[in-house]
Write the C-alpha cells for this entry.
Amino acid sequence: MVTVLRRLLRYPLKHKKELIISVVTSAASAIAGMFAPLVARQAINLVASFRWEEVPLYAALFIILAIIQGSISFIQRVETRKLAELVSFDLRVELYRKLQELSLTYLYKQGTGRLVARVTGDVEQVKGFFRFTFAGFMGGFVLLIFSLGAMLSMSVDLTLISLLILTPLPFLIRRIAKKVRFHFERAREDYAKMTTVLQETLVAMIPIRAVGASDYMFKRFFGHNASYAKHLISVGKLRATIWPTLNFIVNMAVLVVFWYGGMKVISGALSVGDVAAFSMYVGMISWPITSLGFLTVIMERARVAASRVFEVLDAKSDVEEHPNAVPLVVKEGQVKFDDVWFSYDGKTWVLQGLSLEIAPGEIVAITGPPGSGKSTLAMLLIRLADPKKGRILIDGQDIRYVTLESLRRQVTVVHQDVYLFPDTIRNNIAYARPDASTNEVIWAAKLAHIHNFIVSLPKGYNTEIGERGVTLSGGQRQRLALARALLADPKIVVLDDTTSEVDAETERAIYEALTKHLKGKTLIVITQRPSTMAIADRVIVLENGRVKKEIRGAAKRGVVS
C-alpha cells in the first residue's frame, strides 16, 4: 500500500502552485477556526459577569473570524478541487496513451469493459482521494494539535477524559471501513463486467438481435447490474452507521464536559466561558480523530483504484519500438514472411512456420478457411502484434527495427469491420491526412466509387454520419474506409475483405480503378470471393496457419477477368 500511495503522491508534485495553495489554505483555515472558541469564551465570560458593553466587540470579532475562515476555506476547496482534477486529467491521458501502445493480445485478454473502468471509475476514485483527503489531512492535523493545546491550557484532566471517550472512534470507523472496502471492491468488479456487456451490446446490436440473443444479453447485464447495486447499497448502509456513531460518541464527550466542567465552574476552577469553549473544541477535535478512520477508507479505496491504474500503465506490450529504430524506407514494396509463428493466447498456434514472399508491385490474393490466419497476417504486417518466432521484412528491413509511425504510414490495412467516426464524411476520409485538400478527398472518393453517393446527400461531403457509421450501409462504410486508405497514399495496401459487402459490379469497378492507380505498388487482398481473386497476379491459399498452395497467373496487372 505504501509503495502505491507513494507513487500516487508524485502526481500532485507536477502542479506545485495548486498543491502549495491547497495545503497552506487548509492549515490557515484550521488556524482561523481555532480562535472562534476563544472569542466565544471571552464573550460568555463577559455576559456572566454582566459586562455587556464589550460583548458587541467580541460578537463582531466572531463574525470577522467566520468570514476570514470561510474565505480561506473557499480558496482551499477551489484549489483542492483543481488539484484533484489536474491529477485525474494526467492519469487519464497516461492511460489513453498507454492503451494506444499496448498490443492487441493484451487488449483482448483484459476486455474492453475492464479497461474502460480503469480510465473512468478507478481514476475517479483516485480523484476523490486528492479532493477530500489530501489537503484536508493537513488542516485536520493542525486543528488537532492547536485544539489539544488550547484544551490542555484550560484543563488537563478534562482533556484526558474527553480523549478517553473519543479514542474508540477511529477504531470503530476502521472496522466499518474494512467492510466498506470488501463491498466496494466487489462493486468495482461488477461495474467492469456490466460495462463490458453494455459495450458488447451497443457495438454488436444488429447481430445480437438477428440471432435472438437479446434476452441472454439482458440477463447478463441485469445480473451484473443487480450485484453492483447490491454491493453499493451495502456500502451505503455501512456509511450510514458512521454518522450516528460519531454523533453519539461526541455527544457523550460533550455531556461529560458539561457535567464535569460544571462541577469545576462551581468550585471556581473553570469559568462558564471555559466550559463552553472546551465543548466547542471537543466537537472540533472529533473530526480529525474520526478522520483517521475515514482516511483508512479513502486511502484504501484510492490504493485499490490506483493499483489497477498502475497495473495498466506498467503493462509490458508485446509490441515495443526498438530504442534504435529507424524510419522505414520503401523503394520497391517487397514483403516477406520468414518462418512466422504466432499465437494469441500462447497455447494455440494461429500461424505455424508460415513463409511467404510478395514481389514488389505484385497483386496477391490470400484466401483460406476461417481461422487459417489470413487476417492475422495483416495485423502482424503493421505490428499490432509481433510473431512469437520468425520475422517479417519489407524491402529487406525487419519491421521490428523500424519506427511504428513510418511503418503504419507506408503500409495501410483496410479491414472488413470498418470503424468510422461520428463526424463528417469529409473528415472521415481525410482522417489520416487532415491537411488534404477538398480535391484530393474527392479524388480518393471517386477511386473508391463512393463519390456519386456522397454528392447525392443533401449536405454532400459535410454530411454527419452516426456512431460507427450506422447511418450508412455496410458497402458504403467499406468504400469510405477504402477512400481514407487511398488518400494516405501508402506504398503497400492490404485489403482485408474490404469489399465483402459491395455488389459485384461496384467491386469490379473499384478494382479496375485500383489496379490502375496502384500500378507499381504492392497490393495484398484477403478475400473469399473468386471475383476478387481474379484480379490477382497470384493466389495464396492458407490452411492451419501455413501456405497450402499457390495459384499463379490469376490475372494480369490492369486486366480484370
